Amino acid sequence: MEKNTVKKRSLKQRILFRIMMILICSTAVSTAISYVYFRKIVKDQKIAEEQTKLRQVSRQMEYMLEDIQNFARSIVVDESIQKELENKNPDTEFERVKKGDTISRRLAFYNGLRLFVGGSFLVEAGGESYGSVFGSQSDYLREKLETREIKEYLAHPEWTFSNPYLGIDSWGGWTLVCYRTKIMDKYNFGEFQGTLYLEINLEHFLEQAENYGIEYDGVCLLGNKGRILYEKNADTGISTLLTEDCGFMEPGINRTKEGYLLREKIEGTGWELVTLITNAYLRQQSKYVLEFFFLSFTISIFAILNTLSRQIENITRPVAHLSHEMELTSVEKLSRQETVHTRDEIQTLYECYNEMVEEIQRGIDEKMKFEKQKQEMEFDIMLSQINPHYLYNVLNTVVYLSAAGKSKDVVHIANALIFSLQETLRLGDGSMETSVEKELELTSCYLDIQRYRYPDMFETELVCDRSLLPYAVPKTIIQPLVENALLHGILRTEGKGRIQIEIKKEQESLWIFVRDDGIGISNEMLDAFQKKQEIVYEKNGRRHIGISNVRDRIEYLYGAPYGMRIRKCQKGGTEAMLRLPMRKMEPSEDERNS
Amino acid sequence: MTKRVKKAAVLGLSAAMAMSVMGGITVFAEDDYSGGLPSDYEGTLTMWGWDDTWFECVTKAFNEKYPNVKFEYTPMANGDTLQKYQTAIAAGTELPDIAWSIIDSRAKVYELDMWEDLSAEPYNLDINEVYEYLHSKMVNSKGAVCGIEQCLSPAGFAYRKDLALEYLGTDNREELEAMFPTWEAFIEKGAEVYEKSGGTVYMLQGIADAQQFIREQGGKSWIEGDVIKATDTLQKSLELACKLRDNNVCDKLEAWSPAWYASFGEDNHIFAGCATWSVPFNIVPNDPEGEKTGHWGLMNAPEGNISWGGTTIGISKTCKDKRLAWEFVKFATLSTEGAQALNTIGFFTSAKKPYEEKPELANWTSPWFGEQDLGEMFIGEIVPNIQARPMNFDDNVIHETLNLVTTALNNDSGMTAEDAMNQLKEELEMRLADYTVE
Questions:
Q1: How do residues A19-31 score in pLDDT, each as one tens digit?
Q2: Of residues A586, A582, A514, the one with CA closest to residue A551
Q3: Given this model, what pLDDT does residue B70 score?
Q4: How many interface pairs between A and B have CB atoms less than 8 angstroms apart?
Q5: What mean pLDDT do residues A195-203 have?
Q6: Which residues does A contribute to its contact with B (CB < 8 Å)?
Q7: Complete domains list, chain A, with CATH
Q8: Residues A50, A278: Cα–Cα separation, whole Å
Q9: What per-residue confidence (pLDDT) applies to A8?
Q10: Above 60 in pLDDT, residue A59?
Q11: Is there a contact between B87 and A112 if contact means CB atoms under 8 Å apart?
Q12: pLDDT over 90 for what percent of chain B?
């Protein structure tokens, strides 16, 4: 059989490849799902964290407001200021100037207690104003009260702080927001004395937002009416978002296209702290999750494939080995494999393979044995016919007859010998059978020759319907029996013998009987025959295949119920009986051609 | 010592020196305050101050020499100095490493127990390195040198040349000085200017500007022992205040108010008090036109010039790195390098040596003053003739009371100089009960 030369993949590779594909796909899908899930967790956690931070910063600003409120109250109840405010109409200009100076100095004193206070001024109920920086020189204060931011502030009593403005009188160019508180008379309940204004450095609050904003760009502090007091980075677009979306956005978490906008009210101030957690930031934050999953995915795949590769190799090694051995078997020889004890189909495969190998081996052995037998039989047949002694005797007879001038008889014997030799030599044509007619002719030739050697020693009788002549019989099947009847039956008696050949059809079998009235087969021979032992007559170094050869050939060619039996006749002699299948002989190639 | 031992010692010393040089190691004695510091010295100094220009100029120059030194600067109004220091001392919180002191409150501030005596160990400052007229302003009542003046602050009168020419007939310095030998002459002309301008142009921005000069001129101490010499030293001030008021010589702008600053860029005031720091602080930022026109001039004030303002820098007792602080103070006030840095912003160092080493440091011109050498006038003319008024612990109380009285006097046209003096005495007796007011 021609071998398939296409390069084949190993079983291990195929299994591994398929597992790898399934594993990669399933792990990738599960990793992707896990990543999405954990990313959501990270996102939620980050937003919650930011909300907490935002709340903390907001609370911090509320505490700062509380501090400012308490600080303002402590100024309001200052004894000197209260006393000066009680003196609503100073008697002299010096008293008026002195009053203003005293209030200014007290305000300046308090300013010094809080670094974040850029200045302060006090507007009496009567309209007189006093500042911490420039005393009662009210030109400056009037100017200040006329600034847009302060006027706006005065117009909005609900505002806690004014909008920011540049403190021109403050050191360091601070940006200020104004905080106010009413001053009531300590001794006369409900009597309004004036209003105290504290100018707070906006940076005081912005520091909180700035510190919070170190980590993010999108941090914004909204003042009155959503005015932006601080924006970490204008590029983030948070101000645009707030401007556009202020209408519907509520304090808390608001989802926007850019990310999540967290808004936290700073209670008491009217301000809001806003931060934008951008999608990019969240991606950045969840990057480690992605890295983790990617790493985990890679390591898992590598580890699983590595382990699986070894496991699969262990599992498939016997199959691969078997496959290799079978491949070798086809070109070399069958060899039994040592069974692997895997207790699974592979073990079964090995066992079956070994059984198969044994079966094939047995078949091969039997075939070889059969061939050998066949060769031996053919050889034996040939030998039986062209035995040198036989030839010698025949040729001696020919010489004798020639000397006696019986040329006709010589011709007859020679023709019979030639025919015998031809039939015998035709054994090599591959056919094991011949027709009854041919076999009888061969037997007849033999008997003709033997008649010249043993004249008047025997007579023959043939009983055979002509219709049976075309039927097939094994080659040289009758002649040995006749020879056996003549040589070992009749010739061993003193008298003339008779050999009867009867061929008939019965029970859809072809029956051939060769009977003689000779000495009869010995019991030992009969017993050996029945035990299927080989029966060989040897005389003068001549090995004569006999009845056992005939028996074996019939069994070999046809099997049961066909075969050969021998029995002693009651009146003496021996009867050999052959049962053969009824099958007409196919014409040979030569016959068909002719 | 044998030759071999000497040789080994020399070799060892040489090797050590070579290694030091090769390794970039500069060896300095931490206790030696006279030498410098390694250029890679690291440290931080804190300051509370009000003169950002001076701070930035000096620290920048210092960082060029010592790049690893950091400064933490907190802006503070100079009027808050005493209170801020008192609060820090009372609360036990940290004072600045380099402590500033404005002249107005200096007598009281110097009495706070917070100063390192710079004339004592380990600083060993020789006060004679500084101009003599400043000595009394650098020591406290115990004689300790608490600080060194950041710069000289002599003051004369700046005048607007265009307005002087228009209303006084000349913009020549000498002619103007000759025109105003006394305050009376100044008042007389002031009345004329007011009248001539239709009440829109004054000689000065406010009465405080005139008072600043009038009080400081003469150099008489306000207090002698436990007697406040009110009549002797302040009578003239109040009388002149009355005359200035009655003749509309001065506008009513409050000194240091935004309107007062803005007035330097307006065309309503011919004169202004002008110390060395007035040019970068008052004139330059408020009169952008002046740079192109150079329409300012500097002249001697009527009845003499004064030392106006001034800030000292000293070292607080809570300073964590006094060695570095002293290095900075020396650099900023005594060194030629510091003087050169100050010169770039029109400031003049208070030490004498830099001017000896580099005489050009005493020269300085400003586009606002045209070709006039302001340095030559401040250092060469004003400083040698300053009669500095001796400083007293309670001067600031007198100063504040006098301001109140002067303000009332200025506001109340019916108030006479006598009324004002009585009011001053009454108030001083109340505020400074331990003194006798004469």
A1: 888 888 888 888 8
A2: A514
A3: 95
A4: 61
A5: 91
A6: 92-94, 96-98, 101, 108-109, 111-113, 115, 133-135, 137, 139-140, 143, 168-169, 171-172
A7: 1-308 (3.30.450.20), 370-588 (3.30.565.10)
A8: 12
A9: 66
A10: yes
A11: yes
A12: 60
Whether the ipTM is more than 0.90: the answer is no
Which pLDDT tens digit goes with each residue over B267-311?
999 999 999 989 988 999 999 999 999 999 999 999 999 988 889
- Half-sphere exposure of residue A543: CA atoms within 13 angstroms, side-chain side: 10
The reply to whether residue B75 touches residue A172, judged by beta carbons under 8 angstroms, is yes
> Choosing among B82, B83, B397, which should be mutated to test the A contact, i.e. which has the most A CBs within 10 A?
B83
Residue B316 has pLDDT above 60, yes or no: yes
Task: Determine, for residues A101 and B404 on separate chains, whether the beta-carbon distance falls below 8 Å.
Answer: yes
Contacts of A115 in chain B (CB under 8 A): 74
Higher pLDDT, A392 or B355: B355
Contact B408 A140 (CB under 8 A): no
Given this model, what pLDDT does residue A388 score? 59
Which backbone phi and psi does A516 adopt, to 5 degrees?
-140, 165
The reported pTM is 0.61
pLDDT at residue A522, rounded to an integer: 84
CB contact under 8 A, A93 and B412: yes
Measured between CB atoms, which of B258, B400, B405 is closest to A169?
B258
| Residue B105 amino acid letter | S
The stretch B345-362 carries a mean pLDDT of 90
pLDDT bracket for residue B17 (50, 70, 90): very low
Among B171, B203, B182, B426, smallest CA distance to B301 is for B182
**B33-152+310-362 and B154-308+367-437, same CATH topology:** yes
* Sheet containing B148-149: order of strands: B69-75, B43-49, B98-102, B311-315, B148-149
Inter-chain touch A171–B77, beta carbons under 8 Å: yes
B10: which 2 tokens?
């020399």
Q: What is the mean pLDDT of residues B193-205?
A: 94
Min Cα–Cα distance to chain A from B396, Å? 14
What mean pLDDT, rounded, does chain A reach? 81
Strand-strand pairing, A497-506 and A458-464: parallel
Per-residue confidence (pLDDT) for residue A230, from 0 to 100: 84
CA proximity to B437, closest of B425, B424, B419, B427: B425
- Pairing of β B69-75 and β B43-49: parallel
Q: For B404, which of A94, A109, A112 is closest by C-beta distance?
A: A94
Minimal Cα–Cα distance from B75 to chain A, Å?
A: 6
* CATH architecture designation of domain B33-152+310-362: 3-Layer(aba) Sandwich (3.40)
Distances from the Cα of A42 to the Cα of A20, A29, A446, B318, angstroms: 31, 20, 112, 49
* Neighbour-count burial of A442, counting CB atoms closer than 10 A to its CB (0-12 exposed, 13-18 middle, 19+ buried): buried
Cβ separation of A108 and B76 shorter than 8 Å? no
Q: What percent of chain A has pLDDT over 70?
A: 85
Token pair belonging to A411: 């011709």
CATH of domain B154-308+367-437: 3.40.190.10
Q: How far is B412 from chain A (nearest CA, A)?
A: 6
Q: Where are the alpha helices (DSSP H) in A213-286?
A: 238-245, 279-285
Whether chain A has a CB inside 8 Å of the CB on B75: the answer is yes
Question: Residue A327: pLDDT above 80?
Answer: no
Q: Is A165 helix (H, G, I), strand (E, B) or coil?
A: strand
- Using the structure block, give the residue that is written with the tokens 């030739």: A445
* Chain B residues 83-112 with a CB less than 8 Å from chain A: 83-84, 87
Q: Rounded to a whole number, what is the distance in Å from the CA of B400 to chain A's nearest CA?
A: 9
Where along chain B do its domains lie?
Answer: 33-152+310-362, 154-308+367-437
The alpha carbon of residue B413 is apart from the nearest alpha carbon of chain A, in Å, by: 10
- Torsion angle, alpha carbons of B352, B357, B359, B364, to 10: -70
Give the β-pairing of B436-437 and B227-228: parallel
